[in-house]
Amino acid sequence: MILNREVLIGLLIPFIGTTAGSMCVFFMKREMDLTVQKALTGFASGVMTAASIWSLLIPAMEQSAHLDRWSFLPAVSGFWLGILFLLFLDTVTPHLHMYSKKAEGPESTLHKTTMLLLAVTLHNIPEGMAVGVIYAAYLSGSAGISAGGALALSLGIAIQNFPEGAIISMPLHANGESRTKSFLGGVLSGAVEPLFGLLTVMISETIVPLMPYMLSFAAGAMIYVVVEELIPEMSSGEHSNIGVLMFSLGFTLMMILDVALG
Questions:
Q1: For residue range 3-35, what is the model confidence (pLDDT) as tens digits?
Q2: What is the distance between the alpha carbons of residues 205 and 96, in angstroms, rounded to a whole number?
Q3: Running DSSP on this structure, what letter comes out for residue 96?
Q4: Cβ neighbours of residue 125 under 8 Å, at least 6 residues apart?
Q5: CA-closest candidate to residue 196, choices 104, 134, 106
């Protein structure tokens, strides 16, 4: 499959969002306020949920319309494969969620900041795959995905990656890392997105008939992250209503982007 400039830029846009957000560590002197973190996490949740529905699951079912009443089957199958894939990664990788005191996954002697970084990196893998699969569907020419629709998903992921970059780099600095190392940690967490996006595009050429499964696989992986990680973080403790409001804002913004550009 030939990768043109348009596709390469689309794969890099989410990474640029993470990098820009990570730069906040150079301009903000204090650790990010807990309420602000909840708001940003809620916003990211909304974007990812809307992207999973409008950009991935609905196109997957539309591509399976020839199955008539069974058109849901590829979407459901791929969705569950995505859920189980992230469950597997979650189980075998030691990581620490933002507000947790106890690490998840196998026993490890890794430093707290390293496990925080691994948690966000796990989070970013399905986002990279989602952008990769949507551009693969666009390049195939048979999936009904327009250049605008692919760009909408890429921009949506980039918008929610900006606060994510800040959310990972600033706690790293608060835990004793230098600003430069904290910035690089945020950048590194987002580097998996263009990598997995590129890998997804490269392998998709041989499995174009499986595109509905790939689209819904990415959706399932993202929904796993939203429900297992982001929603608990935005809802814990006081002022959880700000997370709900920002979830709604992120959801509607991604919905608008998909419809307007698609």
A1: 688 889 999 999 999 999 899 888 876 666 778
A2: 36
A3: -
A4: 86, 89, 192, 193, 196, 221
A5: 134
Amino acid at site 42: G
How many structural domains are present in the chain? Answer: 1
Q: Cα 204 to chain center, whole Å? A: 19
Question: What stretches in the chain show pLDDT beneath 50?
Answer: none
d(CA 166, CA 164): 5
What confidence score (pLDDT) does residue 95 get?
A: 67
- Measured CA to CA, the distance from residue 233 to residue 97 in angstroms comes to 8
Report yes or no on 233 lying in a domain: yes
Tell me the three state secondary structure of residue 95.
strand
DSSP string, 161-183: HHHHHHHHHHHHHHTT--HHHHH
Cβ partners under 8 Å of residue 259, min gap 6:
54
Tokens representing residue 79 in the block: 């969705």
CA 155 to chain centre: 12
- Residue 1 inside a domain? The answer is no
Residue 108's SS3 state is: coil
Note the pLDDT tens digit of each residue in 160-177. Answer: 888 788 878 887 777 777
Task: Please report, for residues 14, 212, 226, 260, 262, the alpha-carbon distance to residue 234 in angstroms, rounded to integers and kept in the order given.
Answer: 22, 31, 10, 28, 30
Burial annotation 5-34 (CB, 10 A radius, 16+ → b, else e): eebeebbbbbbbbbbbbbbbbeeeeeebee
Domain range for 248 is: 6-261
Instruction: Decide if 211 contacts 134 (C-beta within 8 A).
Output: no
